[in-house]
Amino acid sequence: MFDIIEKIGHTTIQHGKNNDRIYLMKLDKKDYPVIIKKLKSIANKNGYTKILAKIPKWAVDEFKKEGYIQ
Predict the structure, then answer these.
(1) Most buried in the list 21, 35, 41, 66, measured by CB within 10 Å?
(2) In terms of pTM, does the model score above 0.90?
(3) pLDDT tens digits, the chain, 70 residues: what are they?
(4) Contact assessment for residue 35 and residue 24, using Cβ atoms and an 8 Å cutoff
């Protein structure tokens, strides 16, 4: 099965069972910081073990607070 690319609000993500992960491709400020909890929810719902996020510098601190590492 292939990954799905979709919008969560205005933010673009890619996810799928084949790669067992969510990849945040483009974070939109309108969805920040609530997107962090939404990513965790999607991961739990689908049984994904990884969340990868390509984020701008202005979002780093909040992602770190939620357990993301660089």
Answers:
(1) 35
(2) yes
(3) 789 999 999 999 999 999 999 999 999 999 999 999 999 999 999 999 999 999 999 999 999 999 999 8
(4) yes
